[in-house]
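Exercise 3.2. Students should predict the tertiary structure of the chain below and write it as structure tokens, then compare their answer with the key that follows.

Predict this chain's 3D structure.
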Amino acid sequence: MAEWYVDSVREYLKRQHLEAEYECRTAHKAIKRGAANYNEYERYEEELEQ
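Answer key:
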């Protein structure tokens, strides 16, 4: 049972790490594009999704 718990925690942390990397790359691209605040960053992220 402890092994299942450790595996699920490991998967959760891996997913969180990947999401953080994505956010960092997206924020970096938005800053390079001239985003001055978080709202502009969110708008840029929405454009990427479309």
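Discussion points: The mean pLDDT is 86. The two ends are 42 Å apart (CA to CA).
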